[in-house]
Specification:
Number of strands: 6
Shape: elongated
Radius of gyration: 22 Å
Largest sheet: 3 strands, antiparallel
Strand order of the largest sheet: 1-2-3
Strand content: 15-25%
Distance between the termini: 62 Å
Number of helices: 5
Length: 175
């Protein structure tokens, strides 16, 4: 590999280790000519189908767009980065395992919503409201009630109930 400082063609690997998420190898390199050190990262190249957008346009799959959409929905939510990365890796495996050369963006949107519903209900609702283009409060209410019905037995204690039951709308308990 060439040196980014002096453009010399020969560099040697001084150290190699896995990144925290285990998806890449960080290599510490040193130039044989100028002695400068720098890092390179090596990761798997995943086969991903092309994406068919709602308007019929086709584009290459973008892991960055997937990650950005999930992170936008999860912004300021109490979800560990490790859990988010696990969900993203799961989605990447699912996307790369598709046999078709093209898949609709709506399918990826559904998969993202499934993962977000496991991570955080508020993030799920944020994503769903944009993805499904909610037009009124009733659309939010329907999704919230659907989540409440599907709530797992081992509820996440970090999340408060989305709808308070047994109280008239607008009435909150005093703290």
């Amino acid at each position: 590999m060439w040196c980014p400082f002096c453009n010399h063609e020969n560099t040697r690997v001084v150290d190699s280790r896995l990144t925290r998420d285990g998806m890449q190898i960080r290599r510490r390199r040193q130039c044989e000519k100028c002695g400068s050190r720098f890092n390179t990262y090596e990761g798997p190249e995943l086969k991903a189908p092309r994406i068919i957008k709602a308007n019929g346009a086709r584009q290459a799959f973008s892991e960055e767009k997937l990650r950005a959409g999930m992170m936008r929905a999860l912004e300021k939510r109490p979800v560990e980065t490790r859990e988010v990365e696990r969900s993203i890796r799961s989605l990447l495996r699912e996307i790369s395992s598709v046999d078709d050369s093209e898949i609709p963006s709506s399918l990826i949107g559904e998969w993202v919503m499934r993962e977000l519903s496991k991570l955080d209900h508020v993030a799920y609702i944020r994503f769903a409201s944009v993805y499904k283009r909610f037009e009124d409060v009733q659309a939010f209410r329907d999704v919230i009630e659907s989540l409440e019905r599907k709530a797992p037995a081992d509820k996440d204690l970090r999340q408060i109930p989305l709808l308070e039951t047994g109280r008239p709308p607008g009435k909150r308990h005093k703290q």
